[in-house]
Design a protein that fits this description.
Chain B: Keywords: Membrane, Transmembrane, Transmembrane helix. Chain B: InterPro entries: QueT. The complex is a heterotrimer of chains A (281), B (281) and C (257). Chain A is built from twelve helices and ten strands. Chain A is an alpha/beta fold and 281 residues long. Chain B contains 13 helices and two strands; from the N terminus they run ααααββααααααααα. In chain B, 73% of the residues lie in helices and 3% in strands. The radius of gyration of chain B is 18 Å and the shape is globular. In chain B, helix 7 packs antiparallel against helix 8 and helix 9 runs antiparallel to helix 11. Chain B has one domain: Orthogonal Bundle (Arp2/3 complex 21 kDa subunit ARPC3), CATH 1.10.1760.20. The N and C termini of chain B lie far apart (40 Å). Chain C folds into two domains: 18-129 and 232-252, no CATH class; 136-215, no CATH class. Helices cover 69% and strands 4% of the residues of chain C. Chain C has helices at residues 18-34, 39-55, 60-84, 102-128, 131-140, 145-174, 184-189, 192-215, 234-255; strands at residues 91-95, 98-101. Chain C has a two-stranded antiparallel sheet with strand order 1-2. The longest helix of chain C has 30 residues, at 145-174. The chains are: A alpha/beta (281), B mainly alpha (281), C mainly alpha (257). Chains A and B meet through loops of A and loops of B.
Chain lengths: 281, 281, 257
């Protein structure tokens, strides 16, 4: 992994009209090509952190932000979200408001068109992303007629045509059914493994996060309380539970066994548990 | 009781009385002449009886209304001290203003298209509950809301298969329905008698008259392209627009305004919280 | 059933440049204005709009609905305009208070076509022109891009919002809401439980949509690219020339011949 893509120092943030700080003294660093999954109970500040990183708070959404935030080489709090245009891609929870046109091609082309790129460049990017994400058959469909999961795929593709350096995902599967969730999580996994994008995703699905993420950060009440590799974080089962995050099932089982007296290292992945038990393929 | 409070209560009583009178007057007209109630409807008779004056007043209203519409779009607002920068011209719209205009238009257009008009008496089908949102969108969202109402009405015409030359008058006419209460009602909260009283003056009575005259003067002026005879324009359409806007806004808008104002304010979308009106241009 | 919203298709009209279609719609309007006092001279224009409806792949159901709506205008204009010209020409129909003469019928039908022809022409325009191209056309016509874009986003979001309105109405009806019972004032007030949830959803969606637009770099570049600019082809030239010849011919016939 390369240089620092995202650097946050002593970040405090709140929305206009709010008395309490939503983010309290957050410090965070994410390297290029790294994938960080943010976890925490609802209201802990994950979405707010992503909005600050995207330049939306306070530049679009009124609020107060203090500290320093550098994303893709841009001092976000000084420069604003326009300076991040094309460098940072954001995907949100609600697939319904993320498709605003009547064809998938137009959705994918929107961001590079808004950047004023030449027509040939726009077309090339759309075709390249559609091919990479196997969306060629969707290009001339009406996105309003697609399922929630498919709409989220289109939303992610629409962001990728900007060729962002950093991809921010704010609970992209929370409004999707099981099939939609699988579609989206598989795509994010593909983006991480095949394209080496810097990704920061707020997600609740722990079993997926431990397989894909390089690092996990747990937030609670506006602060970053735990940070490290998935193994480092989720092996601290009791602490993670105290902060309102459910550890992976295998970790919980191993932890219960450890409390009964079994001498066990706490695994975080099913494959680790299988190895411990002497099985596995 | 203060003078302002007394005037406000009087305005509400008069507004509601006028709304009730309109319904009663049409019922009477229907009893007198079931084949053509508009011949006996007092508002039709008033418009047609004073046609030369109505036409002259209409021309003035049309010119003023169109000039104000264009000025506001370019970011200037008339005041007693001349033109001031409003901070809400289209060129200075942020993404929130754009989203407000687009969603107001979609919601207003959808409610007009998807809710059935209230049939009170056969032949008088022009009570549209959705029209109650027009003044509210202006008061809550400012110029983006006013533009959203204009676009929404245009969309309802397109979707309903009624788009034509007359739609141009309807576009600016609906902008004025939203604009007048936005501009002249000082307290948009609907929580004080002054707020409600001023709304009844500007958001019920004045906007109904101005919009009816604006739209029908355009239809009259463009009669050679629209094909409606003058007595239909001023004897049927003008009374229908006036009646609908008075009755619907007198009954429904204050209820909706009282419920929706705290929601709008709580979401940080009230225009006065977002925009600072500037100094003299 | 809603007309005027873009319907995906591969019809003749779908393949035409939006400028050619807009010019065609304006020619229909001009010819209808010229022939408004003589329905016989406006009849060819009406027939041309019916042909356009069938060539636009709109579908029989919607076409039938539009024509049915148009027949309501026919009834109204016949009564109104025929009545105004009841003293001129040879009486054709006399029924009580209704006296329709040949002159009255010609004027009534001309006025009917003046109302209906442009409506049908613009329905064809909007149902066969993608919102993307409408935005492009508006910008080319000098409309500020933010205004054009608001219009296009609103058109794109409309089907979803209409579905939401219908869902809310159905849910409230299941909870006992009856929108067609009671006095006028009661029936108006009963719309509150339909309108408030829809607006509440709008208020949430505004922030989401604004964040999406910001993330898609809206307004960043002074000049937005249109990757799929319409391309004027030979077919558009032929269509435009034929339209001009036809409708200018009708105008000449109506005004001078």
């Amino acid at each position: 992994m390369g240089s620092v893509a995202v650097a946050v120092r002593n970040l405090w943030a709140k929305y206009v009209g709010s008395e309490d700080w939503v983010l309290r003294g957050v410090n965070l660093e994410v390297r290029e090509g790294e994938m960080l999954v943010l976890m925490g109970p609802s209201g802990c500040g994950k979405s707010t952190l992503l909005k600050v990183l995207a330049g939306l708070l306070p530049w679009v959404i009124p609020g107060t932000v203090e500290g320093t935030v550098h994303v893709a080489g841009v001092d976000v709090l000084k420069a604003g979200y326009r300076e991040l245009a094309g460098k940072v891609g954001v995907v949100y929870q609600n697939p319904e408001v993320q498709v605003v046109t009547r064809s998938v091609f137009e959705e994918l082309a929107m961001a590079p068109e808004n950047l004023g790129l030449p027509k040939e460049e726009v077309r090339a990017r759309v075709e390249s992303v559609a091919k990479a994400l196997r969306l060629e058959d969707y290009l001339f469909k009406d996105p309003q007629s697609l399922s929630g999961g498919e709409k989220q795929l289109i939303a992610i593709a629409g962001v990728l045509t900007m060729k962002p350096k950093v991809l921010l995902l704010d609970e992209p599967t929370s409004m999707l059914d099981h099939f939609g969730t699988k579609l989206v999580l598989d795509l994010i996994t593909q983006l991480k493994r095949e394209y080496g994008l810097t990704i920061i995703a707020a997600e609740h699905r722990v079993e997926w996060a431990v397989e894909v993420a390089d690092r996990v950060a747990v937030m609670s009440d506006g602060a970053l309380v735990l940070e490290g590799t998935p193994s480092e974080v989720f092996s601290r089962v009791e602490e993670v539970q105290r902060y309102g995050v459910r550890p992976p099932g295998v970790s919980e089982v191993a932890y219960s066994l450890a409390r009964m007296g079994f001498n066990l290292k706490i695994p975080v992945r099913l494959s680790e548990m299988e190895e411990m038990l002497g099985g596995g393929r | 009781m203060t003078k302002a409070r007394t005037l406000s209560i009087v305005a509400v009583v008069v507004g509601l009385a006028i709304a009730a009178f309109i319904i009663y007057a049409f019922y009477e007209a229907l009893t007198i002449n079931p084949q053509n109630p508009f011949e006996a409807f007092i508002i039709s008779k008033a418009f047609l009886g004073a046609y030369p004056v109505v036409y002259a007043v209409g021309a003035v209203i049309w010119i003023l209304g169109t000039v104000v519409f264009l000025l506001e779009l370019t970011g200037y607002t008339p005041s007693l001290r001349g033109l001031r920068k409003s901070g809400m011209g289209v060129a200075s719209w942020s993404v929130i203003d754009l989203a407000l205009a687009a969603l107001s238009a979609a919601v207003y257009g959808a409610l007009l298209a998807a809710t059935a008009p209230l049939v009170i008496f056969p032949g008088f089908t022009w009570l549209r509950p959705a029209n109650s949102l027009a003044p509210l969108f202006g008061m809550f969202f400012g110029i983006p809301g006013c533009v959203g109402v204009a676009i929404g009405n245009l969309i309802a015409d397109i979707v309903g298969g009624y788009f034509g030359v007359g739609s141009i008058g309807g576009f600016v006419g609906n902008f004025l329905i939203a604009y007048l209460p936005y501009k002249f009602v000082r307290d948009h909260s609907f929580s004080t008698s002054t707020s409600i009283g001023e709304f009844y003056i500007w958001g019920v009575l004045v906007q109904a008259f101005v919009s009816a005259v604006y739209i029908c003067w355009w239809l009259d002026f463009m009669q050679w392209a629209v094909g409606l005879p003058i007595f239909v324009t001023w004897g049927v359409i003008a009374p229908v627009i006036l009646s609908n806007n008075v009755v619907v806004n007198a009954v429904l808008s204050p209820i909706l305004g009282r419920i929706l104002y705290p929601l709008v304010k709580g979401r940080g979308l009230y225009w006065k919280d977002r925009v600072r009106v500037g100094t003299t241009a | 059933m809603l007309s005027g919203i873009y319907v995906e298709g591969r019809s003749v009209f779908h393949s035409l440049d939006p400028r050619a279609k807009l010019l065609w719609a304006l020619l229909v309007l001009a010819a209808s204005i010229a022939a408004q006092f003589n329905g016989l001279k406006s009849l060819p224009v009406f027939i041309s709009t019916l042909i356009a409806l069938s060539l636009s792949g709109i579908g029989a159901g919607l076409a039938a609905l539009l024509i049915f709506n148009a027949s309501v205008f026919l009834l109204v204009t016949t009564l109104v305009w025929a009545g105004m010209y009841a003293g001129q020409g040879t009486p054709l129909i006399t029924l009580g208070f209704l006296r329709v003469t040949d002159v009255g019928l010609l004027v009534a039908s001309g006025k009917f076509f003046l109302i209906v022809n442009p409506i049908l022409a613009f329905v064809v325009f909007f149902t066969t022109t993608k919102p993307y191209y409408i935005s492009w056309t508006l910008e080319k016509a000098g409309v500020p891009s933010k205004l054009a874009f608001s219009f296009v986003i609103a058109l794109s979001l409309l089907p979803g919002v209409i579905r939401a309105v219908r869902d809310v109405t159905d849910v409230q009806k299941l909870r006992g809401l009856s929108l067609d019972k009671g006095s006028i004032f009661e029936r108006l007030r009963k719309h509150v439980p339909v309108i408030v949830p829809v607006i509440s959803r709008l208020l949430s969606d505004v922030w989401d949509l604004s964040m999406v637009l910001a993330s898609r770099c809206f307004g960043v570049s002074r000049r937005r690219t249109y990757v799929e600019e319409p391309r004027w082809t030979r077919r558009d030239t032929i269509f435009t020339l034929v339209s001009m010849a036809f409708y200018l011919g009708v105008i000449a016939w109506a005004l001078w011949l």
